[in-house]
Amino acid sequence: MTQLALVIDLNVCVGCHACVTSCKEWNTSGAAGPMSDDRPYGKDPTGTFFNRVQTFEIGQFPNTETVHFPKSCLHCEDAPCVPVCPTGASHKRELDGIVLVDYDKCIGCKYCSWACPYGARELDEHQKVMKKCTLCVDRIYDEALPERERKPACVMACPTSARLYGDVHDPDSEVSVAIRERGGYALMPEWGTKPANHYLPRQKAHVRIHEDELVRADNPLKKERKKPMPDKDSPSLDDVTSW
Amino acid sequence: MHPAFSVIFLTTLIGAAQGLFLALFVTQWFATVGLIAPQDSVQFYAMGNVVVLVLLGLGLFASFFHLGRPERAWRSATRWRTSWLSREVIVLPALMGFSFIHGAMHLLGWDAVLWTTAGGVSFTLSLLVGALGALTALALFISTGMIYACIKFLQEWASPLTVVNFTVLGIASGFTLATAFAAAVSPELVHPFGISAIAFTALGLVTRVAALIRNKRLKHKSSLQTAIGVRHTHIQQKAQGAMGGSFNTREFFHGKSDAVVKTVLWTFLLLTFPVPMLLVWIGMTAEAFGVLALAFAVQYLGLVCERWFFFAQANHPQNLYYQTI
């Protein structure tokens, strides 16, 4: 059985959000229909996205690392959103393991979003149906596209090749090899959802931190330490020079 | 979770309706076997079922406000094999049907003796319909409770106590309503109903407090470490991937301060349990309809607060990605 999935290399993701914008662009003009985007330049912008990049800081200064963390539907092998759906709109395809929502059947009860521990589903505020990453199902099977472009939009857009795509059930696929050889892991394994998407961990690069790199040696703007000031009572220049 | 008033009204209204229907059925059963005097068909059973149907109808009406696409609501009955929500959608109209038939049979006097025992006790068709309705009411309690209890990573909900509380609190409010109803149409039932209402409310206090203690001692299985798969004790979120809010920030958090949540907790503990018990006791001894009606109103208000707290207390693991858990 095929199980298509994404494998995300946290070692090279730079948090540029190219996957987010390309996903939004492709899917807004694709089978998912327009994805709402309200007040994009207002005080509280809101909208539907299939994919978001979050940023976490790990460790304490000065020993910190920044992890940019792209997150979308993980296309779980045992997807908890599917059995709870009262209409059958939320389903997992036998063919390729992609979890999809049938927008014509969805009643917008939000139960599947409660049943997803990853928060991968978002209700479209305008169409009032549940939406989520489709793995660009309308793109990867599009025979009008050249073979090399039959990949999800986010994978095509990633400038650092942090996103791999393929069949995780095929032991020889690029994604399976990456998971096997680079310690690919799944999110929240404690719930037994068996996410198909995996993440490749950051590889520790050793950095030697010198004290003078933490505090600027020349300190031109006196940022780290204030310039010592004389007391109020001590004589000022005027006291000394006037007679 | 974000408490939706449509769901709060749905679960509390149908809970009271199910409890009242069970009270009607138990009365008919006891009257059949001769433990209590038979009740007037029209005044007691037909009118009682009208109240049941009104409450169920209001609950069903409220539930539509929870749907993004209410015009497709009929589709939600199709996945009863896997979805507890689908099962609830089937069982709720079924209970309305049984309640309607039960009431209509009593109103029109259509009944038939199905079986008479050697002791001369006659079991009638309307009792059978009542029994089927009572089973449906219990099935509805289980379905409603399991909608929440079956989501295993919402650990505040994933407990048999959730189903137990939906059932016991529903029956308690139903019997409080039945006491007020009896004061209006059938005064000799005020005492048995009143004592049952107090007993079920006391039982509800025990099971609800048990759930509160359980949730207080709960250790969440998921952490920021398992959520992003990084084993480090210091992880701090710097960006959530969106400048403003999103569905994820609105749907999974109640957005109220701890003080508000605590106030709701003490309000519901007071209004659902001791106050109605006291009012039922006073109303029962004085046989005052007004006091008993007030007892139901206060308990219903308490249950609305109880359900709000039930939702607000549940901490969804997806909040880990938004740092509010």
Kindly summarize this structure in a few lines.
Chain A has 243 residues and is an alpha+beta fold. Chain A has helices at residues 18-28, 81-84, 111-114, 137-140, 153-157, 174-181, 211-214, 237-241, and strands at 4-9, 37-38, 46-47, 51-60, 63-72, 90-92, 99-101, 122-123, 130-131, 163-167, 198-200. In chain A, the strands form five sheets. In chain A, strands 10-1-11 form a three-stranded mixed beta sheet, with helices on one face. Chain A has a two-stranded antiparallel sheet with strand order 2-3. A two-stranded antiparallel ribbon of chain A has the order 4-5.
Tell me about the largest β-sheet of chain B.
2 strands, antiparallel
**What percentage of amino acids of chain B are in beta strands?**
under 5%
Radius of gyration of chain A: 25 Å
Oligomer designation? heterodimer
Number of alpha- plus pi-helical segments of chain A: 8
Number of strand elements of chain A: 11
Distance between the termini of chain B: 10 Å
Keywords:
heterodimer, A: 243 residues, 8 helices, 19% helix, 20% strand, B: 325 residues, mainly alpha, two-stranded antiparallel ribbon, 11 helices
Fold blueprint:
The complex is a heterodimer of chains A (243) and B (325).
Chain A: E1 4-9, H1 18-28, E2 37-38, E3 46-47, E4 51-60, E5 63-72, H2 81-84, E6 90-92, E7 99-101, H3 111-114, E8 122-123, E9 130-131, H4 137-140, H5 153-157, E10 163-167, H6 174-181, E11 198-200, H7 211-214, H8 237-241
Parallel strand pairs in A: 1-11
Antiparallel strand pairs in A: 1-10, 2-3, 4-5, 6-7, 8-9
Chain B: H1 5-32, H2 41-64, H3 84-108, E1 113-116, E2 122-124, H4 125-149, H5 160-185, H6 190-216, H7 224-228, E3 235-239, H8 247-251, H9 258-272, H10 274-286, H11 289-313
Antiparallel strand pairs in B: 1-2
